[in-house]
Amino acid sequence: MGDLADSKVTCVKRLYGDNFVVDESFFEGKAVGRPFGLEGKGRTVRARLLHILEFAGDGKIQRENAWIDMAALMQQLPPGE
After folding, report:
1. Helix or strand (DSSP H, E) at 72
2. I need a labelling partner for 62 at 20 to 30 A (CA). Which of 23, 28, 39, 40 fits?
């Protein structure tokens, strides 16, 4: 995500339990480089972000996964524009 600048993440919904967190957010930023291989050209992008954390008994992160809505990014950063 180094090709994205001026970014902010806004939480939509967060679910949690004894050993996990599921965070649904929206990412907003400026595509200054080639994020995910797409030509940024300084365009502003917004996409849904899903982040899941699972914790071990000692509180350390045991597993972490994150997904970003690539279809939304591809629509906002079409080639040739």
Report:
1. helix 70-76
2. 28
Residue 1 pLDDT: 61
What phi, psi does 71 have (nearest 5°)? -60, -40
Task: Report the domain count for the chain.
Answer: 1
Q: Which of 21, 23, 29 is nearest to 72 (CA)?
A: 29
Tell me the per-residue pLDDT of 27-71, one tens digit each, with 9 for 90 and over: 999 998 888 889 999 999 999 999 999 999 999 999 999 999 999
Q: Is residue 11 part of a domain?
A: yes
* pLDDT value, residue 43: 93
Q: CA–CA distance from 64 to each of 28, 34, 51, 60, 68 (Å)?
A: 21, 25, 8, 11, 14
**Full domain range(s) for residue 19:** 4-76
